[in-house]
Amino acid sequence: MSTSTATFEDVRIKLREQQRISTEDARWLWHNASDAELRELASSVRSRFHQPGSCTYMVMRIINYTNVCVAQCDYCAFYRLPGDKEGYVLSQDQVFARLDELLALGGDLAAFNGGFNPHLPLDYYCGLFAAIRSRYGNRLEFYALTVAEFMYLADHAKLDYATAAQRFKEAGVRWITGGGSEILTENFRSRHSKFKYTVAEYFEAQRAIVQAGLKTTATMVIGFDETIDERLEHLERTRRFQDETGGLASFLCWTYKPYFTQLGGIEITTAEYLRHLALSRIYLDNISRIRTSVLTQNERALEGLLYGADDFDLPIEDEVTQKAGATISLDFDRILVVARKLGFEPAYRSVAGH
Ligand code: SF4
Known about the structure:
- By secondary structure, the chain is of the alpha/beta class.
- Strands 1, 2, 3, 4, 5, 6, 7, 8 and 9 form a nine-stranded parallel beta sheet that branches.
- It has 14 helices and nine strands.
- The chain has a single domain (about 20-45, about 55-350), classed as Aldolase class I (TIM Barrel, Alpha-Beta Barrel).
- The protein is globular and about 55 Å long.
- The longest helix is centred in the last third of the chain and has 18 residues, at about 230-245.
- Helix 3 (about 35-45) packs across helix 11 (about 270-285), helix 6 (about 145-155) packs across helix 7 (about 160-170) and helix 6 (about 145-155) crosses helix 9.
- Iron/sulfur cluster binds near residues 69 and 79.
- Iron/sulfur cluster binds near residues 69, 71 and 115.
């Protein structure tokens, strides 16, 4: 049984001895540690995995292949219901044009992210992914689906998760990432996305993805109306899943953009995001790669490198967050200079060909 930690020094000693902190310790840190103290602890855990001053980045594109979705999450400004005249589905040629542009800009990672579109059969996806693999080979890599979309497609095709994962693998898919998780507590889901899935189902699907030999990641979104306890429950479940499977290649947290959504609200501050990033690094002692979100924090995301992160994306497009207020800069050099000014030398990290 875990116990509450009384002082900052107690936690510091635990971490120095490479002991795991408890959820109660994490709660205590959130409420009591200063920003500087969180930075110090997060940097000490980071140094177990990465050289001080080193960091990596990728140039990538999120391809929103359809905005038609029946899930109706109240925090989403992107989706259109079936039959809406603004609904769309990208053709293979439109996807190829986006991938060609990505390569021309020096990127080599695409992440597909769309809605739960009841009119798209499994063959649309398998055909698309097989065509990409055949056309581009190892010149680029793609995150085929999020876990949430994977679950919807499997259910829609009346396939169990293991069979669905196998079908995608045979179509050339290597990655199904942990998107669509937002806050992984049942209470949060019933408040905001009751048509999506339960948390237990989410992890059941992700386990099947790992067992099929596909790669996956952990994600999290903060800044809705979730409580600190809900954030901690999300981290706790993530750490447990990683203990059990070892399948999570990275953890990425970004922030909710409230503009034009039904839920609305106010954005949390970058300072709060950075504190949470630090807490995630300290708590998730079994995930080596902790990523910071340029997409939602712009160049201030780079300060996340001081709060335990070691990796970031430079995205060239994401309609989902852009519709809700995110802005994207293609001036990559300006962003990389920020990392250098903070004392980090960014190295390009390619997932293509791996
Ligand atoms: S967040 Fe995803 S699943 Fe939810 S409504 Fe938007 S597109 Fe659909």
